[in-house]
Amino acid sequence: MRYRRSLAVAVLVVLVTTAVVVAAELNSDPRVGPGPDDVRLVDMETGDDRLWPYTSRHADFASRTLAINLIVYDDPEVVRYRLERRSNATWTELNESEETANFSVELTEERVGFDWHSAHGAMRYTYVERDGRGRWLPQRYQLHAGTYLGTRSHVRVYAPGGDSEWSAIQAHSEYWDWFRMRHGVTDVWGTSRQLEEDFADQPLVSDVERAYATERGPMSEGISVIHVATLLLAVSVPAVRRRVTAVADEAGLATPTRRRSVALFGFALAVPLVVRGAGIGLEQALPWLPPKLIAAPLYVVLVAGLPVGVYRLSEDVPTERAVALAVMGFLAGITLDAVAMDVTATVMARFAWHRLALATGLGAIAGGTREPGRSRTLLTAGFCLWSAAVLAAALDVI
């Protein structure tokens, strides 16, 4: 009977997960907002182009996202060559002065290496105007250093082509949020400064300045302007249970209840970490496979396998203990994952209530498992809360 309930719960959660993913893909309608006359455009130093110094999710100003943070005055193909062919480029942490709007860059001796590759990522746009005629410009290409399903530095490059001798770059660092099934930005300022140094350290770069053409804030610290002269050139419940049980036996935790308790805590802790590790490992082992194709089954393991596994492992654990172990294990797992991905405290705080809601739902599932006849309400509430939190993350309403 319990196995039938487990199967029914698993099917229900998978169906909810599928609906969530489909709804998230459909929830991308552009918003109505300001027009070209309502936004500030920046005059480019070469030609007659004027640039909106931001990017947007759609071809409209209302869906504005991150600010452009680097402009390179050179042939766009040469700029691409400089980025793509200088893998393992040496980046340097820079000193800054905030007393003036423009300043020169001073180099230090601390160096870090980055290996650039072609990147997968969503399409973003910027707006360019010439002689009163404007057009939306999609990214020309994008590069990253790191892993799509882990943490990475990510750049999008915009270049209008024709006789325009400039490229606009948006650079940031991000991590893959498994619950939201999308990337979360963790840093803009540091990433743009590292990229700025990469260019500043290359031959024939005549000048590097910073101009504050955008609104200053945590995700925008001005635009670096670079002038170049020329260039010649799945975890299963049984598997986790067996492994944790073996460890428990070695530690003297021989009773079935204790073994189940250790297995429950270990499972709730391990799933977020193993999903992350499996995603990064498969992405590196199968570079020809689209990252989201790798992420899809792992997402099901996370949002469906985790609650079903907790449901099964909590059957013989006392109610209060099951609740505490499921909640503490899950919170420990996602905290370790965030630390491993170098997610800042600010980003973690933004999603704290969502993660607590997930933990509460998982705890209710664990607490409502031991005596289904009397705890059906708690069990149902737990699955409903978990599903609602998963849905909120997938629809990006948190």
Topology (SSEs and partners):
Layout: H1 2-26, E1 42-43, E2 49-51, E3 54-56, E4 64-67, E5 70-73, H2 76-85, E6 89-95, E7 106-114, E8 117-118, E9 125-130, E10 133-138, E11 141-146, E12 151-158, E13 167-177, E14 182-187, H3 189-200, E15 205-211, E16 223-228, H4 237-250, H5 256-285, H6 291-313, H7 319-340, H8 345-350, H9 352-367, H10 372-394
Parallel strand pairs: 5-16
Antiparallel strand pairs: 1-2, 2-9, 3-4, 5-13, 6-7, 8-11, 9-10, 11-12, 12-13, 13-14, 15-16
Keywords: Membrane, Transmembrane, Transmembrane helix
Transmembrane segments: 222-240, 261-282, 294-311, 323-341, 347-366, 378-395
What proportion strand? 15-25%
**Silhouette:** elongated
Mean pLDDT: 76
Instruction: Give the termini distance in whole angstroms.
Output: 37 Å
The total domain count is 2
**What's the helix count?**
10
Q: How many β-strand runs?
A: 16
Percent range of helical residues: 40-55%
- Report the major sheet: 8 strands, mixed
Based on helices, strands and strand pairing, what is the structural class?
alpha+beta
Q: Give the SSE string.
A: HEEEEEHEEEEEEEEEHEEHHHHHHH
Q: What gyration radius follows from the Cα positions, in whole Å?
A: 25 Å
Q: Which parts are unreliable, with pLDDT below 50 for 5 consecutive residues or more?
A: 20-32, 87-113, 230-241, 250-254
How would you describe this protein?
This protein is 45% helix and 23% strand. It is elongated. α5 runs parallel beside α7 (319-340). The chain is of the alpha+beta class and 398 residues long. It folds into two domains: 2-26 and 234-394, no CATH class; 38-228, no CATH class. The longest helix has 30 residues, at 256-285. The strands form four sheets. Strands 5, 8, 11, 12, 13, 14, 15 and 16 form an eight-stranded mixed β-sheet that branches. A four-stranded antiparallel β-sheet has the order 1-2-9-10, with no helix packed on it. A two-stranded antiparallel sheet has the order 3-4. The chain crosses the membrane at residues 222-240, 261-282, 294-311, 323-341, 347-366, 378-395. Keywords: Membrane, Transmembrane, Transmembrane helix.
